[in-house]
Every structure is written in C-alpha cells, then in structure tokens.
Amino acid sequence: MRKINTCDFRVATRSTSREINSRIALNVIHEHQPISRADLARRMKVTRGVASTLVNELIGQGLIYEGATGDAARGRKPTFLHVRTRDRFVVSIDVRFSRTYIMLSDFAGRQIALEIFDTIFDIGDFIKNLGNRIRRLLKVHNAEARCEGIGLVVPGMVDYRTGHILNAPTLGWREVDVRDKLAASTGMPVHVENAAKACALSQMWLSNNNPTSAQSFAYISVSDGVGVGVVVNGELLRGRDHIAGEFGHMPLNLDGPRCMCGNNGCWEAYISNLAILSRYFGWNLSKRSPKRLKDAERSSFTVLDLVARARSGDSKAMAAVLATGRFLGLGIATIINLVNPDCIYLAGEITTAWDLMEDTVREAIAERALTEAATRTPLRVTSTQEYPRLRGAAALIAAPTFAAPRVA
Amino acid sequence: MRKINTCDFRVATRSTSREINSRIALNVIHEHQPISRADLARRMKVTRGVASTLVNELIGQGLIYEGATGDAARGRKPTFLHVRTRDRFVVSIDVRFSRTYIMLSDFAGRQIALEIFDTIFDIGDFIKNLGNRIRRLLKVHNAEARCEGIGLVVPGMVDYRTGHILNAPTLGWREVDVRDKLAASTGMPVHVENAAKACALSQMWLSNNNPTSAQSFAYISVSDGVGVGVVVNGELLRGRDHIAGEFGHMPLNLDGPRCMCGNNGCWEAYISNLAILSRYFGWNLSKRSPKRLKDAERSSFTVLDLVARARSGDSKAMAAVLATGRFLGLGIATIINLVNPDCIYLAGEITTAWDLMEDTVREAIAERALTEAATRTPLRVTSTQEYPRLRGAAALIAAPTFAAPRVA
DNA sequence: TGTATTTTGTTCCGTGGATATACAATATGT
DNA sequence: ACATATTGTATATCCACGGAACAAAATACA
Asked: How far is B14 from chain A (nearest CA, A)?
C-alpha cells in the first residue's frame, strides 16, 4: 500500500504497459534462462502472441538473444532465450585502506581480469593512476566498445546521486567528487556507492541460481568497519542524503569503546576487525587515538590469523571469536527488530569462523529478538572468495538494465 | 531502482494505464481540492479529454463529486471537484492500558462522535462490549450504511495480515485474534495495527493541508512504551512478520535499566513515561518487577504533571525533563543514521515540554548524527489534542482508497 | 449591443498495445 | 499417412491515451 507522491509522479502513457511487461519479461528470462517464448508466456500469464512481440523487441534492443533449440517430449521444439550478459562488460573498483582492486567482469559478475595495487591517498594521483590502469585493462582485453561503465565502491558514506564521497574515515577522504573526475578521465559513466550497499545490490541482482531470492534483506559486511545494506521490497534503502543504513554506528553502549566515527559504543567498535584483534591482544581502544589504531591495522597479524589460532586450540583466540560472536548476534537481533527482513547475509573476514561462533551468535539473537519468529530469521554467510565488493561495484552498472520502470 | 519480484509480479493489462492514472487523478484532486478538470489535466500533464474521462469515471465510482463552480478572471467558469470524504465513515478504536477510545469519524479523520470507557482485559468480554458500543454508536448517528470499516490500534506488535495481536505487554495480550472476532461480531471489515505504525499512516494519508508532505519519515510515539512507524518512499515498513520498526527496543546500553520487553537498556527504558517518572521520583527500575511498575503507572501523577512542575520552577522536574530529552535525542540520532528520513514526527505526553527540551534534544542529535546534513533533519511535534492514534486507526480504513495500484 | 477573446469541458478519430483466435511450422506416435 | 501436440506468427478486436476540433460559458472591448 504505497502512497502516490503528488509532487513527483509519472502518469501512464500508451507505451507504459509495454515498458512494464517488457521489463517483467526480461527479468523472468533472466531468472529462468534458458526459456522458450511459450514458457515465458505461461509464466507471465499472457498469450504467446504478446510474449513473442515482447521477446522480439528485447532481441532488437540487444538485451536478449536466441540460443539453441531445446528439447520437448512432443511437438515443435522451443528456441531457447538467454539474457545477453557475457559480452557486456563492467569495470569494478574496490578501494580499501591497504589496496585497491580493479576487476573487469561481464554483466553477470563473472571475472575476466583482476588487478590489485596499493591505494594512493592523494585523489588527483589516484584518479590519474586509476584512469591509466582502466584504459590499459580495456585495451588488453579488447573491451573498450563493450564496456558500459565503471562501478566504484568505498568503505564510507557516499551520496549516490552526486557521486561524492561524503566521508570515508579509513581512507581519510571527505567531500571528494570521485565520480565526475573518473568519468572525465575515462569518458565512461561512473557510479559510486558505499561498499556494503553495493554488496546488497549484487546479492539482489547478480545472484544467478537463487530461486527464492529474498526481496527484503540486510547485507552485513564486517571488516575494517561495519557496513550494512538494507533492501526493502526489492529496493535499496538510501534515505534523503543517501546515508541510510549506517547500522555500524548504532550504539550498543553509549559509554562503550571509542569508535572511528568519534562516538562511543557503536556496534562497529565491538565487532570490526580492529575490535576483534584488540580483544585478543588486550588493547585498550578507549585510550588509543584513531591514528595509532591505523598503525595496528597495518600490522601483519589479521583476523584470519586469529581465526586460525582459534582453530588450533588457542583458547584466548577462541574467547575473542566467541565474544565477537556475541556482539555480532546482539547487533543482528537489533537489525531484525528494526527491519524484520526475510533473511540476513553476512560477509567479512570473521565469518570464516562461522562454524565456531554460530551457536553463540544465535544465542545472542534469541536473547534480544522480540518474537520467536524473529529468532528464526535465516542467516546466510556469503563466501569471501568471490570478491563480493567487486561484484557489488559491477551491480551498480548492470542493475539499471533490469530494474522496474518507475510508475505512478 | 526497484527489482521486479519474479515470483510474484503483475503484468500490465489493457486497463492498467487507466488504473494508474485514475488513482493519480484521485490523489491530485485530494491534495489540491477544490480543483477543476482543466487544472487537473494541467497538473497531470494529460489532455483535458483524458482528465475528463478519468473524472467522470471517479464520479461514477462515488469517489469524488462536483461542487460549486469556481471563479476565473476570463473565460468559462470551472466546476470544482472534491474527494468524497465527509459522508464516508470509519469507526476507530484505540485500546490503551487504562482506557479504550472509540471514535466515529469521516474519511478525512474528522471527529463525529467519541466514546471512552475502561479497558476490559478479558478478550471475550472486551469484544462483546465493544461490539455493542459500536452498534449503538452507528445507530445513534444513523451511520450503519455509510460506515466502511473498523480500524483498531493497540500498543504492541500486530501481524497486520492476519489481524492477530502478537504481543501487547501493557495489555497482557499475546496471540489474540482480535480482527476476526470483531469482524464476526459487527459484520464489518476490521483492520488491526500497531498504534505508532497507524499514526505514521495517518500522518501520510490524512494530513490535509500539508503541501510538502514527506514521502519518507519516522513517526515516534513516546508514551507508556515507545512506538515507531517508519515510512519509506510512501510505504510503511512492515517487514516479514509485520514486526519491523521496533526502534523502542534498540539498545542504548546493553547493561542499562530493565525494559518491559525483558531485555536491558532499550531506548524505551530511558524515555517511556514510566522512565521519565522514575527519573523524577528516583525509582530504581532495574530492581522493580514489571508488575510493580504497572502499579506506579496507574498512580495519578502523570508526565503532564511533571512537565507542569518543571515549568513552575521545580529543578528536579526540569532535570528529569532534560535528561529525558538527551536520551530522546540520542535515539533520534540513531534513527536518523539508520533510516535517514526526510523528517521526523514526535508525539506523546513528553512532547508538551518540547520548548523546554528542544535544545537538549538537538544537542544530543548533533553529538551522534554522522553528518552535518543529518543533524538538520526536521523535527515536527504533532499536537496531542487531535487523538493521533484514533486518526491512525481511521487511516487503516481510509488509506486503501487512495493507495497506488500494485504494478510490475 | 454585438463581436472577439479566453477558458472550460466534450467529442471524435488516430495510434499503441493487450487479448482472442486462427493458422502455419515442426515434431512424435500409431 | 494421419492424428496429435507444441511452438511461434498473423490478424482482428477492444481498451486507453493523444491530439485536434468544437460547443459552452464568461469577459473585454469597440
């Protein structure tokens, strides 16, 4: 039951039905490919005639293509349809404190090439270097003509509309216009987004073999910081200034440990990689300056090492993992109480210890969730091997092709 | 950029354009009434011919009516159109711990009759008594034929789809099927909803002279409990089990005072009426049982009395108000960081002290909000005189008439 | 007073697109 | 060879927007 915005609506024209149905067709094909025209018609509950014209239009637009003829028990054999994703390319970029990742992938998020280099913190130099690398990458893979855009994600707040990075504390960037600079340097459309939000988008748009893909979920990324992307009814929650979803900075304790954001007791201050390591090494976060913490972060001992130690019987490491699991669960419970999503995706280094801490996490959720049904909210750990942030950056460019048309 | 749900979509048919445009027309008329056909056509950017047919169809459906002819500087005088709200009735019910309120109102939320009685906690008796009162009320005002439904709101979690009250701690109701029982007793459609969510709906649908009515906002109701209704892009956030929006139970401090919900340190435990009074009287909430707290709640000294004392120079009362203001602000800041709404509505007894605590609230928000823009999120105190919860209950029945059709 | 002008609301026809139905194409079973 | 089943196309019909003409109603002005 949505209210029509009387200040900014779109009336239906003669071609609105077609816009809607053609987009539905594209999505049904995407979800069930390979699929025949007749099957599409059945799934859409329209006549084969309509399905046929929709399909021919989509072929004309280069969005889908006819593949092999399929097999049927009786009657004429169907010609299978596929969404054109393999020869449509995206450059995705993930900027992190230590390194920057550049990937060339197709519209399905399949990796074609990957390049990693040390992050340059001076924006001018960074853009220049990045531009050169992108141009070379496209040339080497002969992809200049087929690349449709650049998606860039950062850990921090981004105004998606303007493409400005509002505040990325780990990178030390504030009010930086990355989008227009990179667009000018490369001559391609650039989309910039917060990393966790982008991951949520990729979870929604690029998860191919996901039959019951949730329409409402939260994607929680635990890393140097804690980012959350919330999707409600198939739409990413962005908010007025595009800074919604900062669940990493909801308080667990107003008098708790100091957080990178300047406040005390944020969730992030309890479960970020730095917080996990601090728990193990006994660092006192409250008294350390963010600057000195960065040095610690730069040290070679990572959360993955800590998890390894926990597995090999280091009881202090195990205790750090479990304590983190508890706070992770308490935060997840709060998200459940606030958003009540269909499911929750978890990502980040600490999730490699999921088997060790799952029980603790679920206990904490059960402790604070308000209903019994809420405690049963499915938790899904996403694999860290597939570069979720880069897939997210790719989704920024690929998603608009499939999005529902704005109506009413 | 919404994703189409491939498991549950609606293709556009021949009549979809008409459905969309007729609903847009209804809303534009609602917002700008009185308005002529020609003016409607201009605002919708369609031809007068289309506007005319839409209008005539809406008149045929009894949704709008032609009023007086207007005035124009030159040319033929326009005939004004109005949305039919004055002779379409709703019975709205607000169940609270001490009293239950029944209102008969029109579709604009205008009060026609109001009845107040002591809440009966036995469900069977309550429904029976309520049914009798509703029947009598409708008969007295000769409104049986014109009443289109009953909206009922409670302080607690409600599954809107099934009409079950999941848990209303202050009333002591758990898993109670109010909707079907009341529907059976009265023979009318009944909608049940959480009070704060309903208030958010009424803020969206029944705020007549609100030119820049926000499409995304949070409605915060501070009373015996703390309820929040979140609206995103004109749609109420309900969640999978319809228990989204329980911001009252997000933690400010995991080791904080005990809350009605059984957990510790919920926002509600810091700013509910009971918390406010406890602050003044020095009650130790952590050690009291919910049962004994209920007795305190029943006592005659209310938050309104406390605010009066604060105004008359009672420094302890003033301190309680300001301390509450600080926690109110800290919670609001968190909501802003999570949802980033266009604006925030505030309601509840303590808001009568708004002038006393506004500075403190804003200070707390500035302290914890993550961006400067976020600290400037408009706060609007809604008047407590107009029975916001009853208006909310009325909105449950009135809103579907105006809601956007589901498409794609 | 009569005519031009302006604005409102209606009517009519053209066009886009869903819907229904018929039909050609293609494969299988008997 | 023929009935049957299934896919995909072609054609006529109906619904709704889009544009233009026109009638209706009121004012301005000579």
From this structure: 8
